[in-house]
Amino acid sequence: MLFLLLLACSPTTLATRNCAVPATSISATAPVVEAEEPETEVAKVTAYTADCKGCIGITRDGTLAESHKRILAADPRYYPMGTKVELTFPDGDVEVYTVRDTGGAIKGRGRFDMLVRTERFAVKWGVKHIKFRVVD
């Protein structure tokens, strides 16, 4: 409809014709809507290793548990398998981990267990509060 109105009232004919174009038919430039960044939250992050008594070295989704794969255990009710989580460490490093595991003590929103290489590192890590956000 706007196209037809513009043909009938082009700039050259506007001066010579009495063209009335309803204000509702002319749209201003649409506002630019920027995609919102996912919200940053703070998580309680512990560490675990695949080399422990009773561990089989395979994550809940069947991935071989190797720390270089940046694996997280999380509550699947909040973070389904395959969810990508960006962690911002206290030293400023930012790394993306993937939820591939679950754990008995890993319950609720903002609660993660990070796979690490050694039990010694896991014990040294303890519990840290880390900024995180879920990414696509």
Descriptive labels:
single chain, 136 residues, alpha/beta, Barwin-like endoglucanases, 2 domains, six-stranded mixed β-barrel, 3 helices, 6 strands, 13% helix, 28% strand, globular, disordered N terminus
List low-pLDDT spans: 1-17, 19-27
The description of the largest β-sheet is: 6 strands, mixed, barrel
Number of strands: 6
In round numbers, the mean pLDDT is: 81
What strand order characterises the main sheet? Answer: 1-5-2-4-3-6
Can you say what the CATH homologous superfamily of the largest domain is? RlpA-like domain
CATH class of the largest domain: Mainly Beta
Question: What oligomerization state is this entry in?
Answer: single chain
How many separate helices? 3
Order of helices and strands: HHEEEEEHE
Give the class from helix and strand content and strand pairing. alpha/beta
Structure description:
- With 136 residues, the protein is an alpha/beta fold.
- The chain folds into 2 domains: 1-33, no CATH class; 41-135, Barwin-like endoglucanases (Beta Barrel), CATH 2.40.40.
- It has 3 helices and 6 strands; from the N terminus they run H-H-E-E-E-E-E-H-E.
- A 6-stranded mixed barrel has the order 1-5-2-4-3-6.
- The radius of gyration is 27 Å and the shape is globular.
Give the topology.
Blueprint (H helix, E strand, L loop, with lengths): L1 H7 L2 H4 L26 E8 L22 E4 L9 E5 L5 E8 L9 E5 L3 H7 L2 E8 L1
Parallel strand pairs: 1-5, 2-4
Antiparallel strand pairs: 1-6, 2-5, 3-4, 3-6
